Amino acid sequence: MKGKKLFAIASCLSLLAFFPVSCAPAAAPASPAEPAEAPTQTVPATPVPVARSTTPAPTPKPVVEHPRYGGILTLGNSTDPPSLDPIRESTAALFNIISPAYNGLLQYDPLDNEKIIPDLAERWEPSADGMAYTLYLRKDVKWHDGKPFTSADAVFSVDNQRKLNVRKKDLLTAITSVEAAGEYSMKLSLKYPSASILAMLAVGNMPVAPKHVIESKGSMRNDVVGTGPFKLKSYSVGVSLELLKNKEYFVSGRPYLDGITAYIIKDRGTLLAAFRTGRIKMPVPINSFTPGEAKTVEKSAPQAIAQPFQTLKAAVFYINMTQKPWDDVRVRRAIHLATDRQAALKAVSEGEGTLGGALIAGQWAIPPEELLKEPGYRQPKDADIAEAKRLLAEAGLANGFETRIMARAGLAASLTMAEFMTDQLSKVGVRATLDTQESASFLERIDRGAYGTHTSTGGPDITDPDSSAAYFVKGNRYLIADEKLHQLFEKQGRTTDAGERKRIVLEMQYRVLEVAPYVIAPWFSNRIIFWPEVRNYRAGVGQHNNSKYQDVWLAQS
Question: Which one of 218, 283, 370, 379 is CB 3.0 to 4.6 Å from 287, fit for a cystine?
């Protein structure tokens, strides 16, 4: 590998915090139209050998690096997205490669993922009662086809994301209406004061798309027309997606790169080999490396930089509560009890990560010491296995039954989780076979509810319960049908007192353990690995954030 040896970075990222309504600025924050230079980076100078002397050698001065323009950033993505439509799709398989072409209304600061900053919205103001927000938009933005960006595009995008996209509908449930308040302003009206609505709009899969293109073509399944720092050059299914620098980008001096090429490399071993040989400079966040993979790469490429990456992803065994025999809570509880979470932590996430509760460990989750006392989490497993068999017998399934576990091709953790659950189900007489589907088919079948069970490695992009619960409590996509759970979800979203909200969120999680709509094994803690010439990149939190690369540059290599 060219260049001097660099040691792996060990920068631990904090989880995204809960954003109160009052955090919105009353006055306009600094406009991204006039950004500061990207932070300079320093590397130690090579010491010059000196003759023996009683005089101490002078301390070498650091060499200051300034961002440079040019170069193509090469990425690795393990699968083709279902389509290129930024409104109807929500998967990271798409947004990890097309985010550089788009902007959202708001965004997370790429170098400080705890902070929401402007993007297409320059500033925002809440109403006095917290039941509405007015967002003031930039006036100097053009779409890649030269048309001007206006509030009509922003209103159209938010409105259609909450109407046409099941996943985004869950995240935007607090919104009752979206309307233009002028050519460059818009108003969001809410069902209740929502402290998380700004955070939802800042997530990386909430871009603004061109109204005129979608209205003329019906969708953007085959088109990429954004306002972002890069624009589409070409897309070859199964091969690559190429983006070129947008020379008319509204952020002065950005981007630094000439372009980005995302290679579609479906085989995991080939993806790792492509990194080791330098064909790709880094994988996209959805393809972050496991601890074992990171160790393998570090042995063969010690110059590589490894950043800890809080994916907010969990390995989940989802159960379709609307299909027999899974509509019987006794059957679901039996699987919940039989699953060895400690074994899953070792088998699925290589011993790193967090035992799977309904929410990731942190201020909102059931405390670990309490979780370990719960049936399904306690050790040894003898009592849980016996209770699981009793429940199945009570449900008339003493001899077990046959089922299929759908898994997503190209995602190693999804396949590993499916294989692990096949073994766990066998302990109580349930005979499972693996049903592997390509991404497009996998997601389409989930949306139709055409599965009995499936494994997934999805998760929220922020830790606020409104985001996590959209996956794990009231996720329309996952057919979680329990009225009490839904009521608790609605109640916590309307509770402004932090202590009371936490109490309700805990009650909601204990209800999940009773209803057992899924089994979460581990929450992952992985690595983003990249070659040292990639500068000014910091792994975001969650699999959709910090994939725009407008401030990334490539050092000479």
Answer: 283
Kindly report, residue by residue over 69-120, the tens digit of the pLDDT. Answer: 999 999 999 999 999 999 999 888 999 999 999 999 999 888 777 789 999 9
Write the DSSP symbol of residue 35. Answer: P
C-alpha to C-alpha distance for 458 and 59, rounded to whole angstroms: 49
What is the Cα–Cα distance from 537 to 551, expressed in whole angstroms?
8
CA distances from 548 to 76, 84, 106, 243, 255 (A): 15, 16, 13, 11, 10
Q: What ranges do the domains of the chain cover?
A: 314-523
The string of DSSP codes covering 47-90 is PPP----SSPPPPPPPEEE------EEEEEESS--S-S-TTT--
Q: 437 - beta bridge partners? A: 408
User: What span, in angstroms and rounded, lies between the C-alpha atoms of 120 and 138?
Assistant: 6
Instruction: Give 3-state DSSP helix, strand, coil % of the chain, rounded to 5.
Output: 30, 20, 50
Structural contact between residues 318 and 456, judged by C-beta atoms closer than 8 angstroms:
yes
What's the full length of the chain, in residues? 557
pTM of the model: 0.71
Distance between CA 351 and CA 31 in Å, rounded?
A: 44
Question: Span 314-523: which CATH code?
Answer: 3.10.105.10
